[in-house]
Design a protein that fits this description.
This protein is mainly alpha-helical. It contains one helix and no strands. The longest helix has 98 residues.
């Protein structure tokens, strides 16, 4: 059976073929868009993972630095206490020496 090019069936067939081609082209574009979105999503997920890793590293470094700072502050307090004790001891020795010199010169 051959269709007459001007017949209604031929026109309908041509319209359906055009719609099918348009749908196929649209589907192709949609698949391309979907692939681009998937690629972007995968890239974003990699970046998020990198940021999490970096954040964890920075957090751990911060903890280490806070611990080191606490140790230094503790050492400073210990040294200040020792310096205060030495200053008091020196002051007592000076007082004793002055008393001794005062008694000797007397």
């Amino acid at each position: 059976m051959k269709l007459d090019i001007d017949s209604e069936d031929a026109q309908t067939l041509k319209a359906l073929e055009e719609r099918a081609k348009a749908a196929k082209d649209n589907l192709f574009r949609r698949k391309k868009d979907l692939q681009r979105v998937i690629t972007d999503l995968e890239e974003d997920e990699r970046r998020v993972d990198q940021l999490k890793t970096s954040s964890n590293r920075v957090f751990k470094q911060r903890e280490n630095l806070e611990h080191a700072r606490a140790q230094v502050e503790e050492e400073i307090l210990t040294q200040q206490t020792q310096n205060d004790e030495l200053a008091q001891r020196i002051e007592r020795m000076i007082i004793k020496q002055r008393e001794k010199v005062s008694q000797e010169t007397g």
